[in-house]
Amino acid sequence: MINENQQLKEVLSQVTVKYNALQSHFATMMQQNQANEGGGVGEDMVAPRSFMDLSLGALVEGDENSQSSEEGRRSDEQSRSPEESHEQANKVQRLNSLKNSASNNIDQATEATIRKARVSVRARSEAPTIADGCQWRKYGQKMAKGNPCPRAYYRCTMATGCPVRKQVQRCAEDRTILITTYEGNHNHPLPPAAMALASTTSSAARMLLSGSMPSADGLMNSNFLGRTFLSCSSSMATISASAPFPTVSLDLTQTPDPLQLQRGGAPFQIPFMNHQNQNFTGQNNGLGLYNQSKFSGLQMSQYLEAAAGASSQQGPSPSSASLADTVTALAADPKFSAVLAAAISSVLGGGNTNNGNSNINGSATTTSDNSNGNN
DNA sequence: CGTTTTTGACCGGCGC
DNA sequence: GCGCCGGTCAAAAACG
Fold it and tell me: Is the distance between the Cβ of A153 and the closest atom of strand C smaller than 7 Å?
């Protein structure tokens, strides 16, 4: 696990470094293009599927450069076998070529959206909050309308001026479920335990927000990435794109269906109704939303299955074919699944040691169940 | 004694 | 303008 984790980190740092280099290079080229021609930006360089961003841990906004350069300084090649590193280098290259086709302003718009986006995590926990690896200071508590349980407001205190906040509230229907909503990006490095959840939620936000774009490309991105993520995390994800902030909801309380996981058809749900803007309040996140979500999710999965088949046989563009290959390879890699699953479950299940007794409900959402569901 | 939590006050947005 | 509501502030209390 440690080795795999280390390798993933190294791949990530490579991707980040190359991505930054390519982005600056791309920006320079765009400027030159505009200077030369005045208008007429080459359409071939603008690919809608560039909404996707695979950079994990993007919640660490300000430290991306320093961290990656620091990691990049270590020569990681000797720690891997040649084939392995070659294979990973290929993946990285694919990701980079994919990323390189990005339109800068679209990417920035997505970034801005994601920066404002909220990520809501539903998890069963007896503890007052889930242990996510960060230090939080409570600064308020209010009774939310329609929910007998109070909502608590926390601020990240790992660094002065860190803008990240979270709201914690128990679900009105099932008080063993803790709904934690994160908002903002950390301005400091995160400890590994926090990175696991932060990168997971960040990636989920990116994937789902990408998928929320009203284009077939966006939906297909959600398909590939959603499969990877969801089948690994044993979770269900919903997105609320309504104003003012889109909210991504990760449900870590459900038992995954092994058949669904094998088929790659993890439930991917996009509720299209508009009443979920405050879905972290709990009362809106109840059964009504779920029934609705499952209905749309059913339709969604059918469409996505068709889209997956179409792209693997006759991909509309080379980049989408390589994306499919890359993500399929990642999803099929049990090591990747295990690492991601363990990261999530260790955070949510293993972090309750501070109050002595961890989860006592023994329901299907604890660490072991999540891990088993993915192996 | 420094840090964190509690809790009522305050503020801004929104609908009427 | 008024009331409601979600979110934040800050003084007091609690904690270690």
Answer: yes
